[in-house]
Amino acid sequence: MTFFETESFLRAADFIGIIGVFFYLTSYTLLQMGHLRGGSFAYTMMNLAAASFVLISLASRFNFSSLLIQVFWISVSLYTLAKLFSLSRSRAGTARDRRWAAELLPQMDQSEATAILSVADFEETREDLMLLRQGAPVRALYFITEGRASIEIDGRKVREVMPGEIVGEFGIWEGEDASATVRMIEPGSVYRFDRAEFLAQMQEDHALETNVHRLLRRLGVERLMRSTDAIPSISGQKTPA
User: Fold this and answer.
1) Measured between alpha carbons, how far is 166 from 192 in angstroms, rounded to an integer?
2) Per-residue buried b or exposed e for 148-169, using 16+ beta carbons within 10 Å of the residue's own CB
3) Over the stretch 132-179, which tens digit does the pLDDT of each residue have?
4) pTM
5) What is the DSSP string of 52-94?
6) Which run of H or of E encompasses 108?
7) Of 195, 185, 113, 123, which is closest to residue 148 (Cα–Cα)?
8) Distance between CA atoms of residues 17 and 67, nearest Å
9) Which residues pair with 227 in a beta bridge?
């Protein structure tokens, strides 16, 4: 009798298989409850562990169909891990990305902020450069890093956009034409997020999508507060003391 035929080995293999089943059931339950995302690192690792443990358990009670399933599951999990590793490296950003993330997005997790900026093109801008034209399709979202821009509706300046603000987000999500013209009023720089590429990247990387929505919610609240403060001055009224 070989070691692989002993009672102790068979029991150990069965126990390992049960652990694998536990990982399968736990990962699927957490996925359905919304606590894990499909394709995330945690979900992929749990599935890799599950398939590996069940595969080891087959040494005691071999089943060819189960072998095929586990090998396939392991292969897909390894591919996903390699893809996630590649994405994490590409999202590491440059020194410039990290600098602007720290300076303009200090309230965000810096790795998340840098990852967002890393998917955009950094561009120097000249005075009077038009970023968005009222009534024209929005082809990009802009994150202002240096210089000021003006928001104009029907040729009338509504307010200024300062470094750390984003313009074009509504057109990006809804595909609508720009509701206002945004023009640089002094030389500066921006991060330009091409609409088609940006949407495709977020569809591929759900962590990026989550971080972008979190950032836009925060910037949206700040913009609303600024706009509320600006209403009296726009209408020609004085702000109450």
Assistant:
1) 10
2) ebbbbeeeeeebebebebbbbb
3) 999 999 999 999 999 999 999 999 999 999 999 989 888 887 788 999
4) 0.60
5) HHHHHHTTTS--HHHHHHHHHHHHHHHHHHHHHHHHHHHTT--
6) none
7) 185
8) 12
9) none
